[in-house]
Specification:
With about 120 residues, this protein is of the alpha+beta class. About 20% of the residues lie in helices and about 30% in strands. It has one domain. The protein has helices spanning about 25-30, 75-85, and strands at about 1-5, 15-20, 35-40, 55-60, 100-105, 115. A six-stranded antiparallel β-sheet has the order 3-4-5-1-2-6. The chain is globular and about 40 Å long. The two termini are about 20 Å apart.
Length: about 120
């Protein structure tokens, strides 16, 4: 079982249950794009790793949109946390914009039948 968590720029988190690992095609509609770029962030609550890191998926072309989507402050902060902890770097001033998806493997007992808004 899996949950697809969608982090919005407004700070909302929507969670969708899946019986399988969601595909890019299944994420496109949730994050509003047709080309996905993966990256990593420090999000212990949504991670299946002991170090708290998790892969997230964003719109690869968000800077080409007009207007450019709002900055996703929560994910940008978690992305910078990961960079500080691992020694990675991005261009100064880089930020993550728009909706972002995180896939989390879950125990069947915690799976919900309807989306959960947090």
């Amino acid at each position: 079982m899996y949950k697809l968590h969608i982090f919005t720029p407004e700070g909302a988190i929507e969670s969708y249950p899946y019986d399988h690992k969601p595909t890019f095609e299944e994420m496109y509609g949730h994050i509003g794009c047709d080309m996905i770029q993966p990256s990593t962030a420090y999000l212990p609550k949504y991670s299946n790793r002991k170090d708290g890191y998790t892969e997230f998926y964003m719109d690869e072309e968000f800077l080409l949109k007009n207007p450019v989507p709002n900055v996703n402050e929560k994910i940008t902060s978690a992305w910078y946390d990961w960079q500080r902890k691992t020694g990675h770097q991005a261009l100064p001033g880089s930020k993550i914009h728009g909706k972002v998806a995180v896939i989390q493997k879950t125990d069947a007992a915690e799976r919900k039948t309807a989306p959960v808004k947090q």
